[in-house]
Amino acid sequence: MNRLSLTVPFHPQETIPSFCSRLAVANGISSVMEFCWLLDLNHMRIINGDVEETEKLLQLAGVADLAGRRLTKTGVFYDINGETLARSSVVRGRLRYCPECIREDIDIQKGRPETRPYGRLEWCMTSIRTCPKHERLLYTADGEGTVKSFDFAPMMIAEMARLRDHRHPQLQPQSDFELFFARSLRGSREKLGWLDDMPLYAVGRVCEWIGATLLFGKTYLVEELSEADLALASQAGFDVVRTGQSGFETFLRSMHVDFWVKKTHTGGRALYGRLYERLAYESNDPAYSDIRTIMYNVALDSLPIGPGDRMFGPVKERRNHSIHSAAQEFRIHPKTLRKLLKNSQHVFGDLEPTDERIVLPANEMLALVDRLRGNLSTANAAEYIGASRTLWSTLVLSGHVNSSLGAHDDAMYPLYRTSDLDSFVDKIKAFATEDYDPSSAVTSLANAIKRANCKFSEVLDLLLGGKLKSVSVDPTKPGLRGLMLDHREISRHTRTTESDGLSVRQAAAMLITQDQVLRNLIKSGRLEIRNERTSEKTRTYRRITSLSLREFIQNYVSIDRLAANLNRTVVHLRRELTERGIYPAITYEEVGATFYRRSDL
Are residues 52 and 155 in the same domain? Predict the structure, then answer.
C-alpha cells in the first residue's frame, strides 16, 4: 500500500478519528468520509476502532505505533487498554475541547493552520471535565457544523471563527478523580480494592452520583448542575469510594438521618433519593450489582425494612423489626409491644420515638413476641386452671405459677403460658393417691378448704409435701376443679388445740432483744410463724414456732449478748471481730440488730 505524500503528525494524546480527519484536510479533502472512500477505507470502522481498518490508515500515514490510543467499540461498550467505557461515557459526535489548547496548537504546531489543532483522548470522556494543563473547564461546541459529523477538523474549522470570542472558561484545577480516570485510560489504574473489578465507566458514574448527593442533596436534579458542579461532585464521591467499602457504607448510613428524625418511608427512593433511582429505575446494568447489594444490605441491617417494602425489587426477608412492623406481622397492639420492650429493658426512658423508629433485630423481637403469643392474662389464666381469685393469688405469691415476662413491672401486666399452667396442674394431679370414687367423702379443693377452715397455702403445703393420703382426680372436670380431697384429713393436719408457739414478746424476751427486731426477723424469713387456732376455731393467732426460735438461738448470737457474756464493749468487740475477718451474718440495717453466726466465732 502506497504511503500518502501529505501527512500530519500523530500526537501522543490524539485520537484516531481526529488523526484521520486532519489527514483528509491536509490532502485537500474537506470530508473525512470522502477521504476514506477515495482510499478504500471504511470511515465508521475507523471511528469504532476496528483493528484491520486502523492498521490500513496508519500504513497510509506512515505511523507505526498507536501507543494505546485505540478506542474499540464492542457492542454498546468501548474498550481501551483493558478498561471498559459505556456509550454514554464517550463524546463522539460533538466537538469538546480546551480553547487554550487549541490556541496553542495553532500557534505552535506546523502545517496548514486548519490541520494544526487535534483532538485529545481525554476530551472524549464525559467524566473528565477539565484541562490538566490550563486548569480550565472543557468547552462543548453547539454551533452549526459541530454536531454529529464525527469529523474533527471541519468541526474545528467551523468553531475557529468563534474561538476568538470565547471568554476564558472558569478556573477549575484537575481533581484527583480526573487524574485517576486519565491514568486508567492509559492502562495505569489506581487500585481501590473493592471497586477494582468494576468497569471504569461505572466507577466514574458512582463517584458522580455519590458526590452530587453529598453536595447537592439526595433529591438533586442533574439538569440544574453545571459542568463545574459535576466536576466537584465526582471528586467528592471519589473521596468516599477510595476509603473502601466501609466508607461507602458509612455514607449510606448517613442518609438514614431523615428516617430517624422525620416521618419518611423506608423505601429505597425515600432513603437514598437519586442514587437509588439511578440504580433501580434508570439502569439495569449488572456493572452496578455490587453497589446495589451493598445498599440493600446496609438498609436491611440498619432499618426495619421487610416484606412489603422495595429495595431494588420486593424485599423478601426481614432483619430488623420496628414496633409498627412487629405489631402488623404478629397482630399485637403497638402499646403492648412498647410495654414489653420497656419491661424487658431493651428500650429505656420514655420511648419518645414513634412506633416506626423503635427498632430491634428481628430475632430478638421474635423472641419477645413469642412470650406473648398464646399467653393468657391473669383472669383468663385463673379460669384456665379453675382457680378462684384467692387461690390464684396464693399460687402467684408462693411462686407456683410465674409470668412468662419474667420480673413483674407495673408498665406491663403479667401473662402466662398455657404450657406452664398445664405443667403445674399435671404436677398437682400427680399427687393423686387413689382413683376417684363419687361415693367417697372427698370433695373439691375449694369446698375442702372451706369445711376444714384453713388456708389455700396450708393445703398446698400438705399436698406438695406428700402428707395427704386421700387425694383423687375427677376426670370429668378440667384443671384444679377435678382435684378431690378429704376435708377431715386436712382438718386433722391443720387443727391445733394447744399452742406450742411463742408470741413476739415472749420470743423477744428469750433473745433479749426488742420486739421490732423480732418482727424484722420474721419479715426477713429467718423465723417461722404459723397461724394457730383454738379448738373452737373462732380466732386465729400468729405465733413463732418454738422449733424455729431454738434453731435461731443455736445458730446466731447478737453482738450485744456476746459483748455482755465476754464483759467487753460492743465497739471494741466489733473492731476485734472485723480484724479477725469475722463479719455479721445479719446486719443492723436488715433487722435493727447485729447477729453473728456462732459457727464463725
Answer: yes
Residue 182 belongs to a domain: no
**242 assigned to some structural domain:** yes
Q: 525-534 contacts: CB < 8 A, separation 24 or more?
A: 526/552, 526/586, 526/591, 527/552, 529/501, 530/501, 531/455, 532/496, 532/499, 532/501, 533/453, 533/495, 533/496, 534/497
411 and 468: one domain? yes
Is the same domain home to 361 and 384? no
Does residue 443 sit in the same domain as residue 519? Answer: no
Q: What is the pLDDT of residue 350?
A: 46
Grid cell, residue 317, equals 426477608
Residues 406 and 368 in one domain: no
Residue with cell string 412487629: 326
Half-sphere exposure of 244 (CA within 13 A, CB side): 1
**Which grid cell is 306?**
421487610
Grid cell for residue 228: 463545574
Question: Which residues are paired to 321 by β-bridges?
Answer: 360
- The 3 state secondary structure assigned to 109-155 is CCCCHHHCCCCECHHHECCCCEECCCCEECEECCCCCCECCCCHHHH
The model's pLDDT over 560-593, given as tens digits with 9 standing for 90+, comes to 888 888 888 988 888 988 988 889 989 898 889 9
40 DSSP β-pair partners:
none
Domain that holds residue 398: 376-494
- Asked if residue 584 belongs to a domain, the reply is yes
- Counted domains in the chain: 5
DSSP 250-291: HHHHHTTHHHHHS----SHHHHHHHHHHHHHTS---GGGHHH
Residue 105, domain member (yes or no): yes
In this prediction the pTM is: 0.65
Amino acid at 552: F
Burial 475-497 (b: 16+ CB within 10 A, else e): eeeebbbbbbbbbebbeeebebe
Instruction: For residue 506, give the H/E element and its range.
Output: helix 504-511
